[in-house]
Amino acid sequence: MSRSLGVLSTALLLSLAFSETAAAQGFSVNEHGSCVMGRGGTGVALPCADASTILFNPAGIAGTLGWTVAAGVTPIYAGGGFTNDLYQTTDELDNGVVPVPHAYVSYGISSKLAAGFGFFVPYGLGTQWKTDFDGRFLGYDNNLQSMYFQPTLAYDVGKGVKIGAGFDFVVGSLKLTQRADLSEFEAAPGITFGQVGIPFHSEFSDGKLEAHNATGFGGNFGISWDATDWISFGARYMTRVKLDYTGTATFAAVPTGIVLPPGNPLSILLQLPPDQPLPMDAVLEQADLYSEGQPLSDQEVKTSITMPDQGVVGFALRATPKFTFLFDLQWMNWSVFDTLRAEFEYQDEDLVLVENYRDTYGLRFGVDWAATEKLAVRGGYLYHGAAAPDETVTALLPEGVRNEFTLGLGYQFSPMFRADLAYQHLQQNDRRGRTRDALPGQAPTVELNSGIYKFYAHLFGATLSVHF
After folding, report:
1. Crossing angle for the helix pair 2-24 and 280-287, to the nearest 10 degrees
2. What's the pTM?
């Protein structure tokens, strides 16, 4: 039994390695500058004065002399829950507030040439559920971050055309915690513990996967064109970035408290006396799963995650000297998450999982109104499609079609100091999903979907910039 338990225990480790990648899929973060955030994320054709164009279109820093330094944060509160079909009870997300920072520095070397540096986190966030949530066997405390550091150059080539490029150095980290279900493990070849009397979702082990300082490289390229005094166009392309993670999986026993009655099928398999009850915690301790080199001992895990490439095109229409309408169309290449592979310290074979994510498109509309010489009022609307197919919507990230609404204010205190504030409400369409995984070696299907996920978020942005 120790051997068969060990083989299936490895499946837990495999799911730990890949479940967190699912938390990243379909969850990009675009709120890295409160000016752009306030006008619905539109920034590719008309830069804001806070140097956030280093991200949204690197070409935008050309033509501004002197230094611009900006820093800010976007606290994000995500809420929602899962309502199961059978009992119609709802488990709520237990997320706290997640602060997402951003910082930019640009310097106009001449009227034509500019240099800059940006820091932002375009992929990340996570989900947290209580430890009694049914989906804890997929993951209950999950986090992924990809921090981008981007030196940038931009040049005004004339006739309203500017070009820019940045080199992205990316540092990534991830964490996943998950419970293991004893009923799905083999008690003997071809026989699971569930088939010999162990109830479904009987947790017996808590696993955590952590990996830090994964690094990768990419680029961010942009072009803008002021066609006339009243209309501008822009385009940006950010390359995909592959991050190679080396982490550690650790496990801790969770008491089951289960005692099988005398004469149960497992006792018969173990050839125990017919009048002897069987305490499962003693059986699991005897299996010695946590010793050095065993399936649930601490061990090294290696995996890779590719942050998708993305492209944006858009225009800015200055309807009046004080009122500007903006539009962006964004493409995200989520289909790079087709298959994923992991390598384990104590396993001979790598695991390959099929994810089947699909590309998404986002529509962004924004308005920017110069109410006074110092005060700007902004608003916007965003629509995003879903990256996850129906069979891979889980508690790690209950991702789906989203509608988002924004408001923003900007105030120029002096020629040197400026502050921008923004609020964004994210409302996701309800979506069917699952709280349990497919059996090892089997692909997930919609037949496993067992309820409805609801998801929403409130985002608050603040950026302070200085120009000198």
Report:
1. 90
2. 0.87
